[in-house]
Write a structure and sequence with these properties.
Elements (H helix, E strand, L loop, with lengths): L5 H20 L6 H11 L5 H11 L9
Length: 67
C-alpha cells in the first residue's frame, strides 16, 4: 500500500474519472468491479499490477499485452 496525500488522491480520482469518461465516449462500458479497482488504486490501496490482474481474471479470454 502506498501512502498518498489528499491532493494526490484527488488528482488520481480525476484521472480515473477521465479514463472512464473516455471509454464511455468510445461506446464502451467499464464494469463496476473495474471502477472499484481503479478507485482503490487511485487511493493507493492496490497497485496497477493488481488492477490489471483483477481485470484479466474477470475477462480471461482477452489477451494481455506485455512490454
Amino acid at each position: 500500500m502506498t501512502t498518498l496525500t489528499e491532493q494526490e488522491i484527488q488528482r488520481n480520482m480525476r484521472a480515473v474519472a477521465h479514463a472512464i469518461a473516455q471509454q464511455e465516449l468510445e461506446g464502451l462500458t467499464v464494469s463496476e468491479a473495474t471502477v472499484a479497482d481503479l478507485h482503490r488504486a487511485a487511493r493507493g490501496e492496490i497497485g496497477t499490477d493488481e488492477v490489471v490482474r483483477n481485470i484479466h481474471s474477470r475477462i480471461p479470454h482477452v489477451p494481455l499485452l506485455r512490454q
